[in-house]
Amino acid sequence: MQKILTTAQMTCCDKATIDGGIPSVELMRRVALGVFDGRVWQGSIAIICGKGNNGGDGLALACVMIDKGIYPNVYLCSGMSKDGRYYYDILQSKGFDRIYPIDECNYDFDIIVDCIFGTGFKGKPKQEYVDIIDRINSSSAYKICVDIPSGLDGDNGRYVNCVKADETITVQYAKTGLYLNDGKDMTGKLTVIDVGIGLYTDFVNAVEEQDVALLFPKRKSNTHKGTFGKSGILGGCGNYLGAVRLANMGLCSLRSGGGLNVIVTPQSQVNNILGTVMESTVMGLPDEGGYFTFDKDKIDRALQSVSSLAIGMGMGDCYNENAKIIEYIVINYPIKVIIDADGLNALASNVEMLKCAKADIILTPHVKEMSRLCKKSVEEILDDPISIAKAFAKEYKVTLLLKGASSVITDGEEVYIITNGGPELSKGGSGDTLSGVMLGMLSQGVPLIESAYSSAYLTAKVAKDLTKEYSEYGVLPSDVARAISLITKR
Asked: Are strands 167-171 and 415-418 parallel, antiparallel or unpaired?
C-alpha cells in the first residue's frame, strides 16, 4: 500500500524530522535535488517562487541548477521565508543575476516550475496570484509543480484557481488532495520523491495491485460450490431490472470467487429475470405494481442459507416498503450485507436502524446519497470527504465506500483510497457491477473492508484496461462485468 497523508499529517512529519536533527534547509536542498534528478532540463526555464517554503524549494532548485550549468530565470511573487532567504543569499554569493520580480515575467518559456503555494494553501488566491496562475496555465510551457499544484487544496482536491500541471513532484508522501475531487485532473503525472522524512503519524492507504492479489490465493482441489459461500442479490423492480442483471451479469459475484447465488426480485418480475440467468437461482417476493411489499415469511424463505447479500440495485422508489425489508434483514440476520443505490435512499429515512444491526454492513453511497445519509450538504462532504466518511462509519459501525473520482473506504479506523478510477466508470450501472463483485468477495469469506477496497480496485482496473479497446467514452458496465474473470485470473 502506498501511504497518503493529509496536509496536517505531513506537517507533523516535517516537524518531527526537523526536531530529530535534520535542518529544514537541508530538507529543502533534498527536495531540490529530487526535483532536478530524473528530468531533462532543456530550453528556457522559469522558476516562479512564492513567499513561503514552497518558494524556498524553488530557490534551492535554482542553486542546484546553476551548479549543474543550467541557468533558469527566477521570479519572486513577493517576500520569502527564512529558509528561502538562505538559498537566495547563496544565489547572490554565486553572482547569479537572473532573479526578477514576477511582473517582469512574460511566461514564454519551455519549462515553468511552479513553487508559489505549498500544501497548506486553502481557499481562493488573491487577485494578483489569480493573474499569475492564469498566465501560467495559458503558457505553452511544460508545467512542473513542486509538492502540489498551486491553488489546489492539499486535503480535498478542490480549487477556485489552480495551476494545471503536466507533472507534479510531491515530497515524501502523496497528499490526499492530489487524488480527491479535481486533484487528479490538475496534478498530471505524479512523482513522489524520498527526502528522508519519517512517517510519524496516521496515514491513508492507497490500494495497489499487489494488495488485491493477496486476496486471491490458489484454491485447494478438495472444495465444492458451498465452500465459497452462498450470496444473494435483492433488488429490481418493473423499470429497473437491468441493475440486477448487471450485478449478476457474467456472474459478477461468482466470477470474483463466490460459489452459489440467488436473485431475489419482485414476484411479477421473476420470468423477466429467468431468461437472462443461468448460474443463479431466482426467487420472488410479494409485490404491488412491480415494487416489493414487505413479507417476513417470504423473506426468510428467500434468504435461507445466504451468508452475504447485496440489497438495493434497481429496487425502485417505494421507500417505505423497501425500508421495512432492509430494517428486518439488517436487524435479524447475522450476515454480511451490502446496501447500495435505492437501498441507500430507503435507509436514509431511518439511518438509526444501523445501530441495532446484527448484520455486518457495507454502504456504497455516491456524494448525493451520502448527503442524505449523514444530513450534510454535498459541499460539506466534498470539502472533507475522508473525515466525514470516517466519522459516519465509526458512529454507525459500518464499512463505508464513498464513491468519487478516487473512492474513500473506511471502517471508522483505517482509511483506503482507490486512486485508479477514471471517467470510463461514470455510467449508470457501474455501481451495480461493483456491488456484484463485492458480493463475490464477501461470499468467499474476505473481510468487509478488504472486500470493499479490492472490488473497487478491480472494477476500476478492468474499466481502465478496457479503454484500450473502447476508449473512455465507450466502456460499458456490462463490458466490465464480463471482463472481471480475466483480471482475477491474472
From this structure: unpaired
